[in-house]
Specification:
By secondary structure, the protein is of the alpha/beta class. The protein contains six helices and seven strands. The chain has a seven-stranded mixed beta sheet, with helices on both faces. The chain is globular, with a radius of gyration of 15 Å.
Length: about 180
């Protein structure tokens, strides 16, 4: 841990995802917890703030939010994709909303241009749970894990990109966030 092999993995995975920074960690839950904790430490969020999250997700996405004293706001999925319904997100945004967490499920990219526009319109962070879609591409060529402000990755053996044992990573292009993580 924290040796040359870990540094090489971080450099290689950041290159694969298309981000400047990759920080290896124990698992995907830790990666997501660290992202939200770093945003709190940076003053971007504070306990009690809201994070919009798909109702169709693994419990780790919710636990990362609640572990940091943030409030998850569940938005239902589209029936044809099982990803968050971008038509329902805006109605869930309040003055306490600080982020949208999307979850790339089943090897599919959950990001839509509408989600990106909502993040810009309301100045929201976009956090990706990229535990099940390592390397998937958006129409514009961006890879999951590099589309939002930060992404948590899981390498549990049963994942699309699994490790021998377990592991996780945070990817971002934000140097302040990377340093805080």
């Amino acid at each position: 841990l924290q040796g040359k092999e870990n540094e090489q993995f971080e450099a290689n995975y950041a290159n694969f995802i298309g981000t400047k920074y990759c920080i290896g960690c124990a698992n995907g839950l830790d990666a997501l917890i660290w992202i939200f904790r770093a945003y709190i430490e940076m003053g971007v969020m504070m306990p009690g703030d809201e994070v919009i999250v798909p109702a169709n997700t693994y419990i780790a996405t919710i636990l990362a939010i609640t572990e940091n004293g943030l409030r998850p706001v569940l938005v239902e999925p589209k029936l044809n994709t099982l990803e968050i319904d971008d038509d329902l997100i805006e109605a869930a945004i309040t003055p306490k909303t600080k982020a949208i967490a999307i979850v790339h499920l089943y090897g599919r990219n959950a990001y839509t241009d509408k989600i990106g526009a909502l993040c810009k319109k309301y100045n929201l962070k976009l956090v990706e749970d990229n535990a099940q879609a390592h390397g998937c591409k958006h129409i514009d060529g961006r890879v999951t894990g590099s589309i939002g402000d930060a992404a948590g990755h899981s390498f549990y053996p049963g994942k699309n990109l699994g490790a021998l044992g377990d592991g996780g990573a945070v990817t971002t292009n934000d140097p302040e966030l990377a340093a805080a993580v």
